[in-house]
Amino acid sequence: MAKIALITGATAGIGEACANLFARENYNLILTGRRLDRLEKLAAHLNKKYNTEVAVCAFDVRDREQVITNLDNLPAKWKKVNVLINNAGLSQGLDPIQNGSLDDWDTMIDTNVKGLLYVSKVVSNWMITNGTGHIVNIGSIAGKEVYPNGNVYCATKHAVDALNKGMRIDLVSHGIKVTAVHPGAAETEFSEVRFHGDKERAKKVYDGFEPLVAADVAESIWFVVTRPAHVNINELTIMPTAQASATVIFRK
Ligand code: NDP
Ligand code: 8X3
Fold first, then answer.
1. Which residues, given as ranges, of the chain have pLDDT below 70?
2. What's the CA-to-centroid distance between 94 and ligand 1, angstroms?
3. Which residues belong to the active site?
4. Where are the domains of the chain?
5. How confident is the model at residue 134, as a pLDDT?
6. Roughly what angle, to the nearest 10 degrees, separates helices 151-171 and 116-130?
7. SS3 (DSSP) at 225
8. pLDDT at 1 (0 to 100)
9. Any bridge partners for residue 85, and if so which?
């Protein structure tokens, strides 16, 4: 029987790359995100290319009722999830704390922390019933370091780092693996979202060096979920070669 992965934020970037990779490796997929049109297009593509069975589940992770209702309503066969990739997340704004936008702060905290929690609560209970599972939390180098103007985004990713450790402690006796993957700069829609749609400013983030692409991160996620049953990778930090830390990037 094919294994099942539930990927949040599968409409773009790292989540979409994971969908492609896990489908290629014969997983069936529950794909989530807010943009239903993108989810449906991706599902049709994966079904055609790999014969992947896909359950499309469009919801906003910030809305706890939407999360719970959509996941609860999935047919029982989909609740045999082997891998949960908690990937949905974003940064909005890059300003000093005194100038920060309250709306941006709420969005980041509600998405990156509370959204991850809502999904994890539902799916960890499925995994407990199944007696197995692996939760992969997508953190960030921003969860390991703090950089100028990163304040609230860094705080949300430090929270993901703490939750990753806490989940592992709480779920260890149920045979559930918990891993964080912390990427450095990856060129996706991330910077465009951070700069509220300013494509020019977003592009400049990657000037003069070769950033990660989404597929690089997906491969590291694939690595952590394919270790032997007795091995867990607690966390993995993946950076572009030109990026030595959150703030040190060698640009030509
Ligand atoms: P993208 O902007 O390309 O993708 C983000 C995904 O998150 C989209 O699929 C989006 O779907 C989803 N998402 C955002 N908000 C919500 C929401 N409220 N409800 C449901 N889904 C949501 O960015 P990345 O692929 O780069 O980001 C993926 C993860 O990786 C994030 O957690 C990010 O913080 C982390 N990360 C990214 C790095 C980078 O440099 N790119 C580096 C380190 C970590 P939709 O809009 O359709 O809802
Ligand atoms: C995304 C990477 O360095 O912009 O989490 O915070 S960074």
1. none
2. 16
3. 153
4. 4-238
5. 99
6. 10
7. helix
8. 87
9. 7, 136
C-alpha–C-alpha distance, residues 94 and 120, integer Å: 28
pLDDT (tens digit, 9 = 90+) per residue, 100-128?
999 999 999 999 999 999 999 999 999 99
164 CB-side CA count, 13 A:
29
pLDDT in tens, 43-60: 999 999 999 999 999 999
- Tell me how far the alpha carbon of residue 88 lies from the centroid of ligand 1, in angstroms: 5
Q: How many CB atoms lie within 10 A of CB 172?
A: 12
Neighbours of 193 (CB within 10 A): 17
Question: Ligand 1 pocket: which of 84, 90, 189 to mutate (most atoms <8 Å of CB)?
Answer: 90
Q: Are 123 and 73 in contact (CB under 8 A)?
A: no
End-to-end CA distance of the chain: 49
Structure token digits, residue 101: 């936008």
Distance 195 CA to ligand 1 centre (A): 14
Q: Tell me the fold of 4-238.
A: Rossmann fold (3.40.50)
Burial class for 4, CB neighbours closer than 10 Å (0-12, 13-18, 19+): buried
- Ligand 1 atom closest to the CA of 39, numbered from 1: 47
Q: Which atom of ligand 1 is nearest to the CA of 11?
A: 9
Where is 54: in which H helix or E strand?
Answer: strand 54-58
